[in-house]
Write a structure and sequence with these properties.
CATH architecture of the largest domain: Orthogonal Bundle
CATH class of the largest domain: Mainly Alpha
CATH topology of the largest domain: Trigger factor, domain 2
Distance between the termini: 47 Å
Number of helices: 12
Helix content: 40-55%
Order of helices and strands: EEHHEHEEHEEEEEHHHHHHHEH
Shape: elongated
Number of strands: 11
Strand content: 15-25%
Largest sheet: 5 strands, antiparallel
Length: 449
């Protein structure tokens, strides 16, 4: 085998490889010799088929298999000899000329091909002990707990049938059919939907127009979907809903005490409050960690500046760009509406893509160097948690992940990342900074990157 380096530019490598015809022929003959004890051909006893006869019958197909194997072995040797870690699978360019290909297949010419490699950069890890960051923290207050318990109580308030027109605070059971420009639209109709007037559950303007409605009365409710509505095809559209009230109910008295807590399966009101406090604390801790992680990633990005594999960066950019443009198209917005241009937006998202790839490589290197691993038990727990998100389909979800290596890897990757982040937070100098709820949950522009 002869290997000639054609290109060594940045993280790209290109080699010309020549595999001698004699070498390929010898491997093909060895393969045919193995076959003679297995094939059954009329006129020959088992194991007595001449190799020359097998070569006439199967020579081309066997040589094609041998070439494929030889190319893979040659590429592996190039990678191992140079100590490369690949960013992508090798890209092999075999001869395209039919006559030249036939010459090789028939064993009359050497195989000459080029292989393009894209390698991972050598990463020199920084000193993580030099990283200093503030972690925002927020203690759970009694007021937060009381407010949350009040919302739970309100959601479980009893209602009783009422005669007469509906008022704010009443629960109205309605059926409606929605239309835009006289045409019904998907998701715009429903039957027997309970709605507490004044709760703000429906789009703005809907509930106000039902105040005063009586049982069995039908009204045409006219509204405009918000510009940022979750269903992009409805955002900003004017709609009409033919709405019929089938039942009016008045709110009953509600006392938040031990008896109320027992209706929710808790031993006492104090136990309910403790559960609520624990849930709120978990939410605060999650938000706090997310902020600290963002600052940690910023610090890692500053510590590690290197070129990233172009193909990985392009793939990451394509994913980001497709999502951005799809959302803009659905919302009928332009780059001008975002006070930018397509060129400027592309440049910004290319930077984001390179940052994501760079940080991914750094985190992977840290994990490898410090033997940070994800256990099978951790992956299993992640699969179970994902299955629980699909009630009634748990077995199907379980089987999907257990039989799909790529899907399983998609669960393993975030677990690995969080374990590396935990390791880094232990190495860094982290100080806690008390903040308000507004500060903790404020979305930074950087959080979108």
């Amino acid at each position: 085998m002869q290997v000639t380096e054609l290109l060594a530019e940045g993280l790209k490598r290109e080699y010309r490889v020549v595999l001698p015809a004699a070498e390929l022929d010898a491997k093909a003959n060895a393969r045919l010799s193995e076959m003679k004890d297995k094939v059954r051909i009329n006129g020959f006893r088992p194991g007595k088929v001449p190799v020359a006869h097998l070569k006439r019958m199967y020579g081309k197909s066997v040589l094609a298999e041998v070439i494929d194997q030889a190319v893979n072995e040659a590429n592996t040797k190039i990678i191992d000899d140079n100590g490369f870690k690949l960013a992508m699978q090798p890209k092999v360019e075999l001869p395209q000329d039919e006559a030249a290909v036939n010459e090789v297949i028939e064993g009359r010419a050497d195989l000459s091909y080029t292989v393009n490699l894209e390698v991972l950069p050598a990463i020199t890890l920084g000193d993580f002990s030099t990283i200093s960051l503030e972690k925002p923290v927020l203690a759970v207050t009694d007021a937060e707990v009381d407010e949350a318990v009040s919302k739970i109580a309100e959601a479980n308030r009893p209602f009783s049938d009422k005669e007469g027109a509906a008022e704010n605070g009443d629960r109205v059971t309605i059926s409606f059919v929605g239309s835009i420009d006289g045409e019904k639209f998907e998701g715009g109709s429903a039957e027997d939907v309970p709605l507490v007037l004044g709760s703000g559950s429906f789009i703005p303007g809907f509930e106000e127009q039902l105040v005063g409605i009586a049982p069995d009365e039908t009204r045409t409710v006219k509204v405009t979907f918000p510009a940022e509505y979750q269903a992009p095809h409805l955002a900003g559209k004017d709609a009409e809903f033919e709405t019929k009230a089938t039942k009016i109910e008045a709110p009953g008295e509600l006392t938040v005490d031990d008896e109320f807590a027992k209706t929710l399966g808790m031993d006492s009101l104090e136990a309910l409050k403790e559960q609520v406090k624990s849930r709120i604390a978990q939410e605060h801790n999650s938000a706090s960690r997310a902020k600290a992680k963002r600052k940690l990633l910023d610090a890692l990005d500053e510590l590690h500046q290197f070129d990233v594999p172009p193909t990985l960066a392009q793939q990451e950019f394509d994913g980001i760009w497709n999502q951005v443009t799809s959302e803009m198209e659905a919302q009928k917005r332009s780059f001008a509406d975002e006070d930018t241009t397509e060129e400027a937006a592309r440049a910004d998202y290319e930077k984001i893509a390179k940052r994501r790839v760079r940080l991914g490589l750094v985190l992977a290197e840290i994990g490898e160097k410090n033997n940070i691993q994800v256990t099978d038990d951790e992956v299993t727990r992640a699969v179970v948690e994902r299955a629980r998100q699909f009630p009634g389909q748990e077995q199907q979800v379980w089987e999907f992940y257990r039989s799909n290596a790529q899907a399983l890897a998609s669960l393993r990757a975030p677990i690995f990342e969080e374990k590396v982040v935990d390791f880094l937070l232990e190495q860094a100098k982290v100080t806690e900074k008390p903040v308000s709820r507004e500060e903790l949950y404020a979305e930074d522009e950087a959080d979108k990157a």
